[in-house]
Amino acid sequence: MKIRVLGSAAGGGCPQWNCACRNCRGARDGSVRIEPRTQECVAVSADGEAWFLLNASPEIRAQIEGFPALHARRLRDSPVQGIVLTNGDLDHTLGLLCLRESHPLVVYATEPVRRGFVESNVLYRTLQRFPGQVSWRTLRAGAEVELWKDGGDPSGLSIEALAVPGKLPVHLEGLGLVPDACDNVGLRIRERGSRRALVYLSAVGRLTPEVLSAAERADCLFFDGTFWSEEELRELGASEKRASDMAHLPIGGVGGSLAALSGVGAARRIYIHLNNTNPVLREDSAERAAVERAGWEVARDGMEIAL
Ligand code: MLT
Ligand code: MN
Ligand code: ZN
To answer: Which CATH class is domain 2-306?
Structure first.
């Protein structure tokens, strides 16, 4: 399986348009050792021809242009054969609306994520320009499904959704929607004929036995790297919200993912969905050193992995 990180940051990216925190400033003026990052999106493929996107970031146009394997090969065409959504957050779904140039799209999502995107969303009409513009394929927790190519051939990849503690997207809060175990999912992706698994957990509110067991069965693990600490945004004065209010398990600290996942043996362990405030983004920070000492990597835009 070929894996290409198109975007590695959390919502807002780094630098974020309305932020001048140390990291965002440093990413602009070079005063800090930090790489700019776009918002989370990862492309996967079995054959290097048919590609699937994990989430659709608002920066999808530039992300596609920045990776030649995703360029159109004919007048109207795309190597992107499907888009898999892990939740309905805007940093994961706004890109769908950016792909509105009358191209058929196949979107894999759980039913609550589909509903949250299409219901009461007048902008979704831009993806209803012709019958069948979007084909939704339902993901159910624990059920492995094939990813299909345009022509109806199997792509060689299969995917299983894993229910992971998360929360409703911010824009759906307060509407009386009943939270569902599949509002947020992780993904286990395998290539036919291979026993190796990519486990993709970019939003994890807390550890459950299921999350732990999925992480333990991974050969390549992407994990929620939004925040280093529970109080990161509050200490900076950027927001009143704690990491747990936003359903993101921090990396550091006693209950953090670095400690909790210390027994995970995946050959590649990579933090993704990195918020611009996170000190692990600074290449010379103590937090980056701690993560790397423990055998973890910090995702970068353009990172490629062969699994
Ligand atoms: C998150 O990852 O928690 C969300 O993207 C936050 C948001 O939508 O602002
Ligand atoms: Mn996010
Ligand atoms: Zn910032």
So the answer is: alpha beta
- CB neighbourhood size of 134 (10 A): 18
Ligand 1 site residues, Cβ closer than 6 angstroms? 10-11, 89-91, 170, 203, 246
- pLDDT, one tens digit per residue, over 36-79 is 999 999 999 999 999 999 999 999 999 999 999 999 999 999 99
Give backbone dihedrals phi and psi of 147, rounded to 5 degrees, phi first.
-95, 130
Distance 265 CA to ligand 3 centre (A): 32
| Paired tokens of 134 | 């979007």
pTM of the model: 0.98
Strands (E) across the chain are located at: 2-7, 41-45, 51-54, 80-84, 105-109, 134-138, 144-148, 154-163, 185-191, 197-201, 220-224, 268-272, 297-298, 304-306
Q: What is the pLDDT of residues 265-274, one digit of tens each?
A: 999 999 999 9
- Average pLDDT (238-257) is 98
Q: How far is the CA of 35 from the centre of ligand 3 (A)?
A: 13
Between the CA of 27 and the centroid of ligand 3 the distance, in Å, is: 9
- The torsion angles phi and psi of 278, rounded to 5 degrees, stand at -75, 125
Return the best residue to mutate from 170, 223, 249 for the ligand 1 pocket (most ligand atoms within 8 A of CB).
170
Q: What are the residue ranges spanned by the domains of the chain? A: 2-306
